[in-house]
């Protein structure tokens, strides 16, 4: 897809970690501390590639790689523990470049938007507060669906909350899992690299229609102000 044929959205679904807030490193650190507590060897590069996916899936993949089998209860426990450590570490989340300008542009144009994050609801408070919006945003989080990213359920839940058909939504994220979920949901997948652990080529290979370095680069492709 070229920018000349880029469809205007009627709604926008945004990832949180690594897309709106610069928290990917903190997420990785929390997971590595969790696996260390569990006595499960974990490679930082593998964990980095899995950030943004369902935490229970991440726990299983890393454990399987280390030769340690996890049942559902074990995956749930490790995911919850990682979230608790992350909440302790994520004391001062910073917005990524271009985020405020883009969110302001959405609000000025009265374009509805929501956050779709694989994180648990109790983990996202500080990061959402860092957005400094006048109204609290709609959030579809990992506790709302049985299957989080790369499955489309979170994005579809966000589109439903916005009352916008998924095919008329942009899905903006920083991970390959965001792109896969967006395609599965029938949304236009857009990659942002400012806070990503992925390269532009990795995001394109996962389904990104377009990749931009910062979110404000999307503003010219929004509909005119009403």
Straight-line distance between termini? 26 Å
Annotated CATH topology of the largest domain: Rossmann fold
The largest sheet has its strands arranged as 3-2-1-4-5-6
Q: Got a strand count?
A: 6
Order of helices and strands: EHHHHHEHEHEHEHE
CATH top level of the largest domain is Alpha Beta
- What is the percentage of strand-forming residues? 5-15%
Low-confidence residue ranges? none
User: What is the second-level CATH architecture of the largest domain?
Assistant: 3-Layer(aba) Sandwich
Q: Helices and strands: which structural class? A: alpha/beta
| Rg on CA atoms, Å | 17 Å
Largest sheet: 6 strands, parallel
Number of DSSP helices?
A: 9
> What's the shape?
globular
How is the secondary structure organized here?
Elements: E1 11-14, H1 24-38, H2 44-50, H3 55-65, H4 72-89, H5 99-108, E2 113-116, H6 125-129, E3 138-140, H7 153-162, E4 169-173, H8 176-185, E5 188-192, H9 200-205, E6 210-212
In brief:
The protein is α/β, with parallel strands linked by helices and 226 residues long.
Report on this structure.
The protein is an alpha/beta fold and about 230 residues long. The protein has two domains: about 5-25 and about 95-220, Rossmann fold, CATH 3.40.50.1000; about 25-90, Orthogonal Bundle (DNA polymerase, domain 1), CATH 1.10.150. About 40% of the residues lie in helices and about 10% in strands. It contains nine helices and six strands, in the order E-H-H-H-H-H-E-H-E-H-E-H-E-H-E. It has helices at about 25-40, 45-50, 55-65, 70-90, 100-110, 125-130, 155-160, 175-185, 200-205; strands at about 10-15, 115, 140, 170-175, 190, 210. Strands 3-2-1-4-5-6 form a six-stranded parallel β-sheet. Helix 9 (about 200-205) links the parallel strand 5 and strand 6. Helix 3 packs across helix 4 (about 70-90). The protein is globular and about 55 Å long.
């Amino acid at each position: 897809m070229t920018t000349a044929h880029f469809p205007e959205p009627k709604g926008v679904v945004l990832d949180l970690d690594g897309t709106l807030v610069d928290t990917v490193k903190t997420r990785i650190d929390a997971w590595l501390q969790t696996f260390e507590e569990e006595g499960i060897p974990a490679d930082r590069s593998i964990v980095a590639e899995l950030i943004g996916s369902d935490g229970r899936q991440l726990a299983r993949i890393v454990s399987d790689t280390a030769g340690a089998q996890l049942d559902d209860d074990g995956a749930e426990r490790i995911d919850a523990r990682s979230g608790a450590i992350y909440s302790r570490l994520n004391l001062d989340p910073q917005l990524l470049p271009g985020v405020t300008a883009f969110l302001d542009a959405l609000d000025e144009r009265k374009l509805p938007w929501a956050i779709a994050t694989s994180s648990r609801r109790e983990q996202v408070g500080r990061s959402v507060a860092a957005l400094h919006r006048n109204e609290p945003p709609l959030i579809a989080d990992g506790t709302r669906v049985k299957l989080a990213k790369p499955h489309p359920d979170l994005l579809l839940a966000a589109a439903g909350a916005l009352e916008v058909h998924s095919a008329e939504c942009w899905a903006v994220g920083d991970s390959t899992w965001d792109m896969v979920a967006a395609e599965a949901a029938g949304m236009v997948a857009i990659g942002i690299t400012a806070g990503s652990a992925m390269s532009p080529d990795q995001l394109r290979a996962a389904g990104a229609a377009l990749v931009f370095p910062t979110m404000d680069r999307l503003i010219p492709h929004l509909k005119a102000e009403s």
